[in-house]
Write a structure and sequence with these properties.
It is built from eight helices and 18 strands. The chain is α+β, with helices and mostly antiparallel strands. The chain folds into two domains: 6-70 and 105-155, HemS/ChuS/ChuX like domains (Heme iron utilization protein-like fold); 177-292, 3-Layer(aba) Sandwich (Heme iron utilization protein-like fold), CATH 3.40.1570.10. The strands form two sheets. Strands 1-7-8-9-2-3-15-14-13 form a nine-stranded antiparallel β-sheet, sandwiched between helices. A hairpin with a 2-residue loop joins strand 11 (214-220) and strand 12 (223-229). The chain is globular, with a radius of gyration of 20 Å. It holds the Pfam family HemS.
Length: 299
């Protein structure tokens, strides 16, 4: 396949401006970071991907939206980035923002300042070596807009090239997959039970109906984002089941979950067809009763 140039990427994007960036890049066979790079000098700026530089500065932006995703699940939380705890595995625990970060995966970052129907759409987007999104921060109407330009200027890199060359990622450095793996569950090495198809969806709906607080963890090799609390509005739309509450959105592909396992501590893990962990769910008081009502997969 002939390499596509940044100019060709911009031309193609102009024809499909409303398509989600991730879906657009995938349609062209490109990593999402290549799409950001193509707009460097116009709506994008290359910035440092060092969490020790990015994350402390985000507190000045006030209320923003934190987004972490994998191929099958997206978690969005509104809050402030404060209380950064640096380290090889870094943390931000400033409820409702709760992040765990594997800093080695943070290899490329861009500040995007795009025109939207209601004004500027500003975000900071971080990618791994292959160009896959690790974490994104989106400004909102209530964000401190005057802090944006100084933050971008402080993080701006000297290299403002429009080319992006993906590189292999380190498979051993995977924060998310290390949480849970399928083979030990199937082989009975872990005392867990396999739940019937649709268990995650039923648990979400019942937790909302009964006001049982739930915990979600959604992640990828470089970032895990968590939510803890009551959920209210749970809706299905096509293949997605969604939580659409103020300050919280979760979008989960129902058709991607092929195995669901419940652990003795009440943690429930959903896996995809490639044995990848999609979402982890658990709960507080009342959760055990909801989980007990879920049937096992029949042998």
């Amino acid at each position: 396949m002939t390499a596509i140039t940044p100019e060709q990427i911009r031309t193609a994007r102009a024809r499909k401006p409303r398509l989600y960036a991730r879906d657009f890049a995938e349609g062209l066979g490109l990593p999402e970071a290549a799409l950001c790079a193509a707009f460097v000098g116009t709506t994008a700026t290359r910035i440092s991907a060092d969490p020790n530089r990015i994350l402390p500065g985000l507190a000045a932006l006030g209320q923003v939206m934190a987004l972490t995703r994998n191929d099958s699940c997206v978690l969005e939380k509104v809050g402030c980035y404060d209380g950064y705890q640096p380290g090889k595995i870094a943390r931000i625990v400033n409820p409702p923002i709760d992040l765990t970060l594997l800093c080695a995966q943070w290899q490329h970052a861009f500040a995007l300042d795009e025109a939207g129907p209601k004004g500027p759409k500003r975000s900071i987007q971080i990618f791994d070596a292959a160009g896959e999104a690790v974490h994104k921060i989106h400004l909102r109407d209530e964000s401190t807009a005057e802090a944006w330009a100084p933050l971008v200027a402080a993080l701006r890199l000297e290299d403002q090239g429009q080319e992006f060359t993906p590189a292999p990622t380190d498979p051993a450095a995977d924060l998310w997959s290390d949480l849970s793996r399928v083979p030990p569950l199937r082989e009975g090495q872990i005392a867990a039970r396999r739940l019937a198809k649709g268990a995650i969806e039923r648990l979400m709906v019942r937790a909302a109906e009964t006001a049982v607080p739930v915990d979600f963890a959604v992640g990828n090799p470089g970032c895990i984002e968590r939510h803890s609390g009551v959920i209210v509005r749970v809706l299905e739309a096509g293949p997605w089941i969604n939580v659409l509450d103020p300050g919280l959105e979760l979008h989960l592909r129902m058709d991607h979950m092929v195995e669901i396992w419940a652990h003795p501590d009440g943690t429930v893990d959903a896996f995809g067809e490639a044995d990848q962990l999609i979402v982890r769910m658990s709960g507080a008081e009342g959760w055990a009763d909801l989980l007990a009502a879920e049937g096992d997969v029949q042998p």
